[in-house]
Amino acid sequence: xxxxxxxxxxxxxxxxxxxxxxxxxxxxxxxxxxxxxxxxxxxxxxxxxxxxxxxxxxxxxxxxxxxxxxxxxxxxxxxxxxxxxxxxxxxxxxxxxxxxxxxxxxxxxxxxxxxxxxxxxxxxxxxxxxxxxxxxxxxxxxxxxxxxxxxxxxxxxxxxxxxxxxxxxxxxxxxxxxxxxxxxxxxxxxxxxxxxxxxxxxxxxxxxxxxxxxxxxxxxxxxxxxxxxxxxxxxxxxxxxxxxxxxxxxxxxxxxxxxxxxxxxxxxxxxxxxxxxxxxxxxxxxxxxxxxxxxxxxxxxxxxxxxxxxxxxxxx
Length: 316
Fold this sequence. Notes:
The chain is of the alpha/beta class. It has helices spanning 6-15, 25-36, 96-110, 129-141, 158-172, 195-199, 208-218, 261-273, 290-293, 298-315, and strands spanning 51-59, 62-70, 82-86, 113-117, 151-156, 180-184, 250-257, 278-287.
């Protein structure tokens, strides 16, 4: 029987850190920044990076702050692949500050520019604001001031959901697709009927029952145009196999101690059944959020480097 990484178990208990717990989400936002923010990491814990550049994208909902991480191998005279990254946090919690270390690690290990996006959070900005901003940033990277050689999209948890959803939306609208989709423990659909939702319901960082409150934040309501939880761009994992064909190659990463484990495995299987190229990696001893836990856990760091390997492979 797998056991969760002992370090992660002790760390989460010591920090009393939960995502989707019974605290007010504003408190969770602050707590996550206090634990995972790059400014809170000692220098010896920070992943090295060649250069960090802050910029802004003029989007349809306003300016979108973006942070670009250039690996030390970057040569300004050559184009380099890039990954647009939408962070997790239930559409409600999180910032690029909390994911900077992971994005640095990925950039250096994959020899790729990574782009962290400070997208607008729910419930202040409900669906489809975030997908609009994802597409706006993608258009910016393909413009004259941001041209890159091959654009990948990626994200963890809710960010994985939005990446998969954008791939479907671009396909449906006949627009240029992403080169690949990198999905870390994605919330492909609500996990109300899976064994993982019971086995990992509470105590493993992501609180399963909190996922439903995050979905409530994400879905619009009056006076906005209403949207069903089964909407194609809200729950990619609920779509029938025949509706998932023709999307970019996917790399899907799942963890044993994660309430989203089974919906991630299910989505990877559906994508493969639909005829898409899929690489699936599973980490039985890890939990949700390993990219952020890499500074303190060798197992989490190794899993993050696996992500980078597949990024590099899919960008080729």
